[in-house]
Design brief:
Elements: H1 6-14, H2 31-61, H3 84-95, H4 97-116, H5 120-133, H6 142-154, H7 158-171, H8 178-191, H9 195-207, H10 216-229, H11 233-244, H12 251-267, H13 274-291, H14 296-308, H15 312-325, H16 330-342, H17 346-359, H18 364-376, H19 380-391, H20 397-408, H21 412-434, H22 437-442, H23 450-455, H24 459-472, H25 493-502, H26 510-567, H27 601-610, H28 619-627, H29 660-663, E1 669-671, H30 675-679, H31 681-689, E2 692-696, H32 698-702, H33 711-717, E3 722-729, E4 750-756, H34 757-778, H35 793-808, E5 813-821, H36 829-834, E6 865-869, E7 874-878, E8 885-893, E9 896-901, H37 906-915, H38 929-934, E10 940-944, E11 949-952, E12 957-962, E13 966-973, H39 978-993, H40 1002-1012, H41 1018-1044, E14 1049-1051, E15 1061-1062, E16 1069-1070, E17 1073-1079, E18 1082-1086, H42 1088-1094, E19 1102-1105, H43 1109-1118
Parallel strand pairs: 1-2, 14-19
Antiparallel strand pairs: 2-11, 3-4, 3-5, 5-6, 6-13, 7-12, 8-11, 8-13, 9-10, 9-12, 15-16, 17-18, 17-19
Helix pairs in contact: 2-3, 2-4, 3-4, 4-5, 4-6, 5-6, 6-7, 7-8, 8-9, 8-10, 9-10, 10-11, 10-12, 10-26, 11-12, 12-13, 12-14, 12-26, 13-14, 14-15, 15-16, 15-24, 16-17, 16-18, 17-18, 17-24, 18-19, 18-26, 19-21, 20-26, 21-25, 21-26, 28-41, 39-41, 40-41
The structure holds zinc ion.
Domain JmjC: 827-990
Family: Belongs to the UTX family.
Protein name: Blast:Lysine-specific demethylase 6A
């Protein structure tokens, strides 16, 4: 190693990912630092090479270990195989701890330095190698997680960036750059369509009063854009206008706001009359260009607006300017192609489209338009190739991310369009199958083939050509009107394709076929022009633009965030050796070569200390151990799982390969004969033993009066009671199609609204009447209404499938009445008391039910909910809140069909959701069964008849569809078992990482359990005690920290049945120590992290305490393992 000067070493030692965005190495002022950084990069690279060569001989003899790539969720998407040499080195270093530490810290430092130099691929590569060395400990190095997150972000691997950032915030919500992390997460989640969570992160980013690398206005811009992509146009407009009124707005941001506003005026009908909107659009886009003359994006959109009002010349001009400003934009080229095509200049159009698809190989619109162009010239083979490219699934991850907007902004026009496309492809397949290819393409060819066009270097030529054209245009007089506009009213393309397909061309000779094609050419042209017309009037002006803008504005603001934001930052100034200097006083170490790469001594020592916390400690020992913790920094994440544990990840599926039979296991079911059966302990045991169980004949055995829950009785009791309604598409239970009915998907669409019991009852009844009428009209008897048959599940399944087939094509909408709240005892007394007849383990309230120990109502969990259904009503896939068990009774008269997957496989389903770009926790999904079987995931499938109770065990993933007209009632229970408790706690932590609110306050519940019950199950005891330990430690640590900050803690106490508290900002549970801040005249509870975001010194924040410390200490110390001969609640 080359010795460096003291100063150089101290500069390098302090540099890490946290300086990203603060330290601009491209700034001439920082030239000196930059050269030190570059020199160090070379040195480290040399060191690594030196280590490798030095150890080559040793490693050569070591058998290189097989490297486990799948152990954590952080395995990068590509770069999976390590180079041989690296593998051997890793094998060697696993033996040599000391050398390994130095080596891996060097890798991490290398990652940081590359990151600061803006060399993101190099940074990612170094970080990924570091990660391979640190599978088990990487999470203790927060600077590393931040750095790799930024590298992923910069390289647009959003999925991985999101993962890293979520872990970072979970591990340390107070991380120095947490506000940047929130902004980036908000930005990426918005991009991925997870709007709710995106908004949450953006609002958290807005909360910060710390100096940060972006301004408040940038965050507000992102929030305004979030409204825009959700089609909340008025809110978006208001938010944008608000930004324009701010006098601190930068020129660049002003340009962005004007651009978005201009484009909204162009696209959004509710913003006024078309003429006015168009003129506003032009004005705003022009203002945007004035504010930022370099914006190729605004110029492009201006061109689109001109094209929309037939100002072809102006459109060309704007496009040309846009190409000059930002040459690499496929959308611009695509739009230029459309203009040329409309001007009947096919060669120019071809070249423009080729430019588009060369810039973006997955550009669907350009491929489609190009196909149409070829078809109109009779070049079917080329057209076919283009259509195929247009329908091809976006291949790389980047494209998936880019185009995820597609799924969101789906609407009918776009769907019709893609449907037409697949019909075109089928049609061309037939045509091409009949005609030998060369003869079609070689003779009457008007355009060069797709291969030739692809290989021509046309960009430059295109540029000049385009300029010529633009100059020529005025002389050509006004542009021709859109061709054959009136034809768009004529027979639909779909029908035409059908007619064509019926042509008896199969036995014809080659020449005949050619002739047919020629004859049909007129038809094609008409058809094509229909499409072109459709494209230009509908798709381009509305649908596509809607899509394009959301994508492009995101792209644009992405660039915006990633470039502008960080170079113009003025809040953080870099002064070598003074900031963020963790080890400032340890000067002696500066000259120590080995410590040069030592990164995270502080966090390492914290985790060492954490390890000393054990559930065997009493509260006094705990208190003195806490005194040893640092109070300079706020206490970080309080995980209640375990001491010193990595962030949670979804589990891998059980590895054993299942046979086809095992993938379709029989559903555990039991038939009750009488009341004695129902109350036998064996029934509870049976239920607890299986992932899911169906208890048949329960209502009969207990003589439950299900009539109390019939629609008729409900209407008589409370007609005006509120019902949430989900409007859904009626589908066969084992199928889920996208809205165009073109492919099977996971995303399950339903729209939410509200009504009353009386109105829903009316709907339910009329839906039933209508179906009776239908059945009579069709002349077949037997309906799905009453499930009077005694048939076994499998038989009824096949009946359903048969019946469904008939329904499939009609794709009618239905309304599902859901989440009807029956918690009010005054309103629903007879109903609720009837449920007292159930055995204790299934009752809504019982001492053996954890949820009865929460002490307050959690709607729908420890209270009853009702579901009112017509056939096809869907409850999409989910696990219950915090993995609690659930009880579901079918009131009838119709059946329900259930699908269920054991909890051990939830990670597999989670991954499939991710693959389908849908959020496991927030999204609405209906699994494609074949996808599950392919992943070796078993599925229970069964029918629940009236009077049957379904027991959903802890963590079981399930989805349900009604077969007939029926009502269901359901609630959650929490048996006092270690399994239930640990699954609830695991989900509590996973929710925290995903920024998803846990509606069961597990900490509050655990303290109540410790007060109320005696636990004899050792495992359950240890888990609860661990939660108490972790929370008590966190409370003590927080109080020490708050006192250190000079803030007084006031005792507030709490009412007996007060609801537990959640942070008003981030929605984590806040237990015992509450930070109150008045916001908009309301007193809002905050967690410590959010309070610190609002006020780093905690000034202006009131700190309240709910319990006396002595009381908590007493509860903690008194909670001991209850030794008994099986008399406790637990087994
Ligand atoms: Zn919070």
């Amino acid at each position: 190693m080359i010795p460096k000067s003291f100063e150089e070493i101290s500069i390098i030692r302090d540099l890490d990912s946290r300086y990203f965005g603060c330290l601009d190495l491209s700034d001439p002022k920082n030239l000196e630092i930059k050269s030190v950084v570059q020199k160090t990069v070379t040195t480290i690279q040399d060191d690594i090479a030196f280590y490798i060569s030095k150890n080559m001989i040793v490693t050569h003899e070591l058998t290189s270990k097989v490297f486990d790539n799948n152990s954590t969720g952080n395995t990068p998407p590509d770069d999976k195989k390590l180079h041989d040499v690296e593998n051997k080195v890793i094998g060697f270093f696993e033996e040599e701890t000391l050398a390994k530490n130095q080596f891996k810290n060097a890798l991490c430092k290398l990652g940081h330095l590359h990151l600061l130099l803006g060399e993101y691929s190099e940074a990612l590569s170094a970080y990924q190698k570091y990660l391979r060395f640190n599978r088990n400990n990487y999470w203790k190095n927060h600077e590393f997680i931040y750095g790799i997150g930024i590298a992923y972000f910069k390289l647009r691997c959003f999925k991985w960036a999101i993962k890293s950032f979520q872990e970072l915030l979970y591990l340390n919500p107070n991380f120095t750059c947490a506000n940047d992390v929130h902004l980036r997460l908000g930005f990426m989640l918005k991009h991925c369509g997870e709007y709710h969570i995106a908004l949450k992160h953006l609002q958290l980013a807005l909360l910060y009063t710390y100096p940060s690398t972006f301004s408040e206005l940038h965050v507000k811009f992102q929030i305004a854009h979030l409204y825009e992509v959700q089609n909340k146009h008025k809110a978006a407009k208001k938010a944008y206008e608000f930004l324009l009124n701010d006098k601190n707005i930068s020129l660049k941001l002003r340009a962005d706001v004007y651009r978005q506003l201009g484009w909204m005026y162009h696209c959004v009908e509710c913003l006024g009359e078309k003429k006015e909107r168009e003129s506003c659009a032009l004005t705003f886009l022009q203002k945007s260009i004035d504010a930022d003359p370099k914006s190729g994006q605004s110029l492009y959109l201006l061109g689109r607006c001109y094209a929309g009002i037939n100002k072809v010349h102006d459109a060309f001009l704007a496009y040309r300017n846009s190409v000059e400003k930002s040459e690499g934009n496929a959308d611009t080229w695509c739009s230029i192609g459309v203009l040329y095509q409309q001007q009947n200049q096919p060669t120019d159009a071809l070249q423009a489209y080729i430019c588009a698809v060369q810039l973006d190989k997955d550009h669907k619109e350009a491929w489609t338009n190009l196909g149409i162009l070829y078809e109109s010239c009779g070049q079917l083979r080329d057209a076919y190739a283009c259509y195929l490219n247009a329908t091809k699934q976006a291949s790389c991850q980047k494209a998936t991310i880019l185009r995820s907007e597609d799924n969101i902004s789906m609407n009918k026009d776009a769907i019709g369009f893609s449907k037409g496309l697949s019909q075109r492809i089928k049609f061309l397949e037939i045509q091409l199958g009949q005609a030998p290819l060369p003869s079609i393409t070689s003779k009457r060819r008007q355009l060069c083939s797709i291969e030739e066009a692809w290989n021509l270097p046309i960009s430059l030529e295109m540029n000049s050509r385009q300029q010529q054209t633009a100059q020529m245009l005025p002389r050509q007089g006004p542009p021709p009107p859109y061709p054959h506009r009136e034809i768009s009213e004529s027979p639909t393309p779909a029908k035409r394709v059908k007619d064509d397909a019926l042509n008896p061309i199969y036995n014809r000779s080659e020449q005949d076929c050619q002739d047919t094609i020629q004859q049909n050419k007129t038809q094609y042209i008409q058809f094509n022009q229909n499409i072109i017309t459709t494209l230009s009037t509908h798709n381009l002006d509305n649908v596509q633009e809607g899509r394009l803008i959301s994508e492009q504005s995101i792209l644009d603001s992405y660039e915006y965030i990633s470039n502008d934001l960080y170079t113009k930052n003025t809040n953080c100034k870099f002064e070598p050796g003074t900031i963020l200097s963790i080890n400032n006083d340890e000067t002696s170490r500066h000259l120590n070569e080995d410590s040069e790469y030592t990164e995270f001594n502080v966090s390492a020592s914290i985790s060492d200390l954490s390890q000393s916390f054990k559930i065997q400690m009493d509260s006094k020992q705990l208190l003195s151990a806490v005194k040893l913790l640092t109070i300079e920094d706020p206490p970080i994440n309080c995980t209640v799982l375990q001491v010193n544990t990595p962030p949670p990840t979804p589990p891998d599926c059980p590895p054993q390969k299942l046979s086809r039979d095992q993938l379709l296991p029989p559903t555990p079911s039991v038939h009750l004969e009488n009341k004695k059966n129902a109350f036998s302990p064996q029934l509870q045991e049976f239920c607890l033993k299986h992932p899911i169980a169906v208890v048949r004949g329960l209502a009969g055995a207990l003589k439950l009066d299900l009539g109390l829950f019939s629609t008729k009785t409900l209407v008589e009791a409370n007609p005006d009671h509120s019902v949430e309604v989900r409007t859904q598409v009626h589908q066969s239970p084992d199928e889920n199609w996208d809205t165009s009915q073109a492919k099977r998907v996971w995303a399950c669409i339903s729209h939410r609204s509200h009504t009353t019991i009386a109105k829903y009852a009316q709907y339910q009844a009329s839906s039933f009447q209508d179906s009776l009428k239908d059945e009579n009209d069709k002349g077949y008897a037997g309906s799905q209404i009453m499930s009077d048959s005694d048939s076994k599940d499998s038989v009824s399944n096949s009946n359903i499938t048969l019946k469904r087939k008939k329904h499939k094509s009609s794709s009618k909408m239905l309304r599902f009445g859901t989440n009807v709240d029956l918690s009010d005892e005054r309103k629903w007394k007879p109903q609720l008391s009837e449920l007292q007849k159930l055995p204790a383990f299934a009752r809504v309230i019982s001492a053996a039910n954890m949820l009865s120990h929460v002490g307050h109502v959690i709607l729908g969990m420890n209270t009853v909910q009702l579901y009112m259904k017509v056939p096809g009503s869907r409850t999409p896939g989910h696990q219950e809140n915090n993995n609690f068990c659930s009880i579901n009774i079918n009131i009838g008269p119709g059946d329900c069909e259930w699908f269920a997957v054991p909890d051990a496989y939830w990670g597999g389903i989670h991954n499939l959701c991710e693959k389908n770009n849908i959020s496991y926790l927030h999204g609405s999904w209906w699994p494609v069964l074949e996808d599950l079987y392919k992943e070796n995931i078993p599925v229970y499938r069964f029918i629940q008849k009236p009077g049957d109770l379904v027991w959903v065990n802890a963590g079981c993933v399930h989805w349900v569809q009604s077969v007939g007209w029926c009502n269901n009632i359901a609630w959650n229970v929490g048996p006092l078992t270690a399994r239930q408790y640990s699954l609830a706690i695991e989900r509590y932590e996973w929710n925290k990482l995903q920024a998803f609110k846990s509606i069961v306050p597990m900490v509050h519940l655990s303290w109540n359990l410790a007060r109320n019950i005696k636990v004899s199950d050792k495992k359950l005891f240890e888990l609860i005690k661990m939660c108490l330990l972790q929370t008590l430690k966190n409370i003590l640590h927080t109080q020490e920290y708050v006192k250190f900050k000079g803030v007084e803690i006031r005792f507030n106490g709490r009412g007996k049945n007060d609801a537990s508290h959640y942070c008003g900002q981030c929605e984590v549970e806040v237990f015992n120590v509450l930070f109150i801040k008045e916001q908009e005249k309301r007193h809002v509870v905050h967690c410590l992290s959010c309070a610190l975001k609002l006020s780093p010194s905690l000034q202006g924040i009131v700190c309240l305490e709910e319990y006396r410390l002595s009381e908590l200490q007493h509860v903690y110390d008194s909670f001991t393992l209850y030794r008994t001969q099986g008399l406790a609640y637990t087994q």
